[in-house]
Every structure is written in structure tokens, then in C-alpha cells.
Amino acid sequence: MAASALRVKDPRRAGGAAQARLRILLGHLQGPATPAIAASPTLAAVVPSNFHPPKFQYTLDNNVLTLEQRQFYEDNGFLVIKNLVSDEDIQRFRNQFERICRKEVECPGIDIMKDVTIAKSTHSLNENIVTKIQNFQGDEELFRYCTLPQITKYVECFTGPNIMAMHTMLINKPPDSGKMTSRHPMHQDLHYFSFRPPNSIVCAWTAMEHIDRNNGCLVVLPGTHKGTLKPHDYPKWEGGVNKLFHGIQDYDANQPRVHLVMEKGDTVFFHPLLIHGSGSNKTKGFRKAISCHYASSDCFYTDVKGTSQENIEKEVQVLSDRKFEGLKIQLKDIWMIRARLVKGKRINL
Ligand SMILES: CCCCCCCCCC(=O)SCCNC(=O)CCNC(=O)[C@H](O)C(C)(C)COP(=O)(O)OP(=O)(O)OC[C@H]1O[C@@H](n2cnc3c(N)ncnc32)[C@H](O)[C@@H]1OP(=O)(O)O
Ligand SMILES: Nc1ncnc2c1ncn2[C@@H]1O[C@H](COP(=O)(O)OP(=O)(O)OP(=O)(O)O)[C@@H](O)[C@H]1O
Ligand SMILES: O=C(O)CCC(=O)C(=O)O
Ligand SMILES: [Fe+2]
Ligand SMILES: [Mg+2]
């Protein structure tokens, strides 16, 4: 099975007697090896001379990240690269977003969301009504973002050479109406995904303007990528919550948080288990960011039946029922339809 094949790649997680010995040998990753073990001829015999214990779990060997950057991602689950996308490119994405909102261009497969507080009003669509667009893989102008070489260069450090764009968004966080619905609750993106393993998935999120706590920056809980996927559901917010904006239920407000203040063009890469959210927009402007979730094409699809992700699958099924007229499709089918190759070979996804 693909899952177990992937697991044994990391000897620290593998079972069996030989693997247990390997695990002892790798013990120096957690602390210094005892001289007795290091000198053992028996143990030396089971370890091939070309075997190098993996120092890193969340990043791949490459010449792109500095050691410090690599260690930062390993420890924290995110990495900000300053000034990665040019003003010219950001202006092009902004222009195309406006054309899509005004329905001046067709964009097959796109989902357009209005804020929950105005969802039932009958404004004609424009860029001051739309809170985000999702799944723009079919739009060549916006999809350019996913293929920018300076972005994929970093993505490759997490996914390897075969890169799929799985999920695309342009978020247009509106000025808060006073009901605090412009917040995005604390969540892990993996909750929405029915493909694995998590370490081969990464999000690139680029600020399209200066973003700080006033207009609702990203808030991350450093190191939470080392944990597991937590159950998610709608937060009990008085002013309402946007469709599909699930949050972690047992969120501890006392955990250390980092507010990511970013300039236009700065890009954060983050792990799909990293707990993050974004604050309300207290300004009069629409706060814009563009993002893509990438995965290695040798990831595999999973069935979410019997897991904490059943609730998101059910909701997505209701939405897709409306769209695809009663066709009962699974979460993994949705992702398969959306996935688009960026670089290398399409393998499993
Ligand atoms: C979300 C966090 C992202 C994290 C990373 C991974 C995310 C992956 C999540 C997914 O991709 S799930 C997969 C499927 N869905 C999407 O990708 C897009 C989600 N958004 C949508 O599908 C639409 O924007 C939505 C269904 C919410 C609205 O669709 P329409 O443009 O057809 O809206 P319409 O105006 O016809 O309204 C339909 C109903 O939705 C309601 N509605 C619209 N916007 C809403 C909103 N923002 N919040 C709550 N309800 C909303 C609206 O009131 C109305 O309710 P009723 O049926 O009771 O009349
Ligand atoms: N008590 C809480 N319980 C659950 N989630 C919270 C709580 N407080 C904040 N959050 C979440 O933390 C993230 C950022 O919130 P934050 O408080 O930083 O933003 P804000 O309230 O808009 O701004 P500020 O705190 O600067 O007024 C959001 O995802 C928000 O939903
Ligand atoms: O507010 C944002 O820009 C990020 C929202 C987010 O984390 C998401 O949509 O998954
Ligand atoms: Fe997210
Ligand atoms: Mg707050």
C-alpha cells in the first residue's frame, strides 16, 4: 500500500527489529548517542555506509533554502520570503480579479463567495462585493501565479520536482461590517484535503499589499505543524460565519501566536497542519492576498469516511449536488477535478 510504503521511508517511524535498531542509532537526533551504541560492531553492520540519518523531516535536500531557513520551517512550520512577487505581476492579478468579479471574463470552475452578511442581498457582482474567489486553475492569467518560477523554486523544497496545484484562492477580505465575519477562524488547511502525506503539501500565500493587524493579517501558531489534524467545525460566533469557514473547536487562546505583518509581494510558505487564521479587517479597504496549495503528484487520495473530515465532505457534497445535479461525489473526486499540473509529471493525484 502506498501509505505504508511512504511510512517506511522514515526509519524513525518504522516497525520491526532491524528498524528498532536503526531507531536507536538515530537516537542522537533527540540527544547524544551513548558511546556503547555508537561503537557497537553489530549495529554498524546493519547500517549501510552511505546511510545518512535524516536531519530534516519537513523539507527536502536542495540548494535553495539556507540552513537557517530550513531549520526555521522545520521548527515553526512556515517561512516568509520577502519581496518574491513583483508589483507588475500583482497588478495583473488584481486586474484579472476585477474582470472576473464583474463577469467580464468567463472562468470555468471558479467559485465566487460573498461575505455572509451580504450573501442574500442582490447587488450585482463587483470587486467590492466578493470576499474571495476559489479554484481559478482554469484562468490562465491568475494561474500564472501558481507557475511563477520564483515561487515554484521554493515549493519544490517541500514537494519535490512533481508539483500539482491543488487549490487556488484570491482572498479579498472586506472591511468588517461590524459583525466580525471578516475573521477567518483558526484552522488547519489539511481539514479540507483528502490527499496525503501532509509533509508533501505546502501553501504559498502572497500579500498583494501591505498587510498587518489593522486589515487582518495571517495569525499563526508556530510549531503546530508537528501535531495532528484536529476536529474542525463552525465557531459559535454571534455575527455569523462564512460558509465552510470551519475552525478548531478546542482552540486555546493562550497559545503563543505570531501575527505575520507582510509587505506587497512578500510570500509565506506554510505546512497544511500549521494552525492559522486571520483577524478582522478594521480598515475601509479590501485586503487582498493570492494563494495556491501545492502537493507532490506522488501524494495519494484518501477516503475521509470515519474521520473528523466527514463533516466537511458532507457539506461539500451538498454544494456539489447543487452544481453537478445529484451526482454523489466524494471529497477526493472534487480534488481530483481541481488538480492541475504545474511542473514535472502527474503521478497519483
Ligand atoms: C474555506 C477555507 C479554505 C481553506 C483551504 C482549503 C479550502 C478548501 C475548501 C473547499 O474548497 S470546499 C469545496 C467546495 N467549495 C468551494 O470551493 C467554494 C466555496 N464557496 C462556494 O461554493 C460558494 O461561494 C457558496 C456555496 C458559499 C455560495 O454559492 P453561490 O454563489 O451559488 O451563492 P448563492 O448566492 O446562490 O447562495 C447560495 C446559498 O449560499 C448562501 N451563502 C452564500 N454565500 C455565503 C457565505 N459566505 N456564507 C454562508 N452562506 C452563504 C446563500 O445565502 C444561499 O443560501 P440559501 O440556499 O439558504 O438561500
Ligand atoms: N478567543 C478566541 N477564540 C478563538 N479564536 C480566536 C479568539 N481570538 C482570536 N481568535 C482568532 O485569532 C485570529 C486572529 O485574531 P486576532 O484577535 O489577532 O484578530 P483581531 O481580533 O481581528 O485583531 P486584534 O486582536 O488586533 O483586534 C482569528 O482567526 C480569530 O478568529
Ligand atoms: O485570510 C486569509 O487570507 C487566509 C485564509 C485562510 O487561511 C484560508 O482560506 O485557508
Ligand atoms: Fe487556511
Ligand atoms: Mg483579537
TrEMBL record:
The keyword Oxidoreductase applies. One of its GO terms (cellular component) is peroxisome. It is an enzyme of class 1 (oxidoreductase). GO terms for molecular function: L-ascorbic acid binding; metal ion binding; phytanoyl-CoA dioxygenase activity. Keywords: Dioxygenase, Iron, Metal-binding, Oxidoreductase, Vitamin C. Its cofactor is Fe cation; L-ascorbate; ATP. It catalyses: 3-methylnonanoyl-CoA + 2-oxoglutarate + O2 = 2-hydroxy-3-methylnonanoyl-CoA + succinate + CO2; 3-methylhexadecanoyl-CoA + 2-oxoglutarate + O2 = 2-hydroxy-3-methylhexadecanoyl-CoA + succinate + CO2; 3-methylbutanoyl-CoA + 2-oxoglutarate + O2 = 2-hydroxy-3-methylbutanoyl-CoA + succinate + CO2; 3-methylundecanoyl-CoA + 2-oxoglutarate + O2 = 2-hydroxy-3-methylundecanoyl-CoA + succinate + CO2. InterPro entries: PhyH (IPR047128), Phytyl_CoA_dOase-like (IPR008775). GO terms for biological process: fatty acid alpha-oxidation. Pathway: Lipid metabolism; fatty acid metabolism. Its EC number is 1.14.11.18. Pfam families: PhyH (PF05721). Belongs to the PhyH family. This is Phytanoyl-CoA dioxygenase, peroxisomal. The gene is PHYH.
